[in-house]
Amino acid sequence: MMIKKLIEEKKKDKDFAEAYDREGRKLETAVALYHAREEAGLTQAELAQKAHTTQSTIARIERGDNVSFDKLDDIARALGKKLVVEFA
C-alpha cells in the first residue's frame, strides 16, 4: 500500500507522471504481445521465425523495450492479427 501512496505523491511532478505513464504504455504493449504469443501457442523463437526477426527482438519487446511500428506490424501479421493503434 505504501508504494501506491509514494507513486501518487511522485506523480504530482509533471515529468515523473509523464515518464511513469509512458513506461506503463510500454508494459501494456509487452503484456499484450506475450498473451498473443501464448494464445498462438508459439515460443519466442517460433514467433521470431514467422515474423522474420530474432528471438532476442521478441524478448526485448516482451520486456517493454522500444520497438518500431513496422516491427510490431510484422509480428502482428505473423500472429494472424492486425496491429491497431488507438488515440483515446
From TrEMBL:
Q: Which residues form the HTH cro/C1-type domain?
A: 33-87
For this protein, the record's CDD domains field holds: HTH_XRE
One MF term in the entry's GO annotations: DNA binding
Record Pfam families: HTH_3
Q: Which domain of life is it from?
A: Bacteria
Spell out the protein name for this chain.
Answer: HTH cro/C1-type domain-containing protein
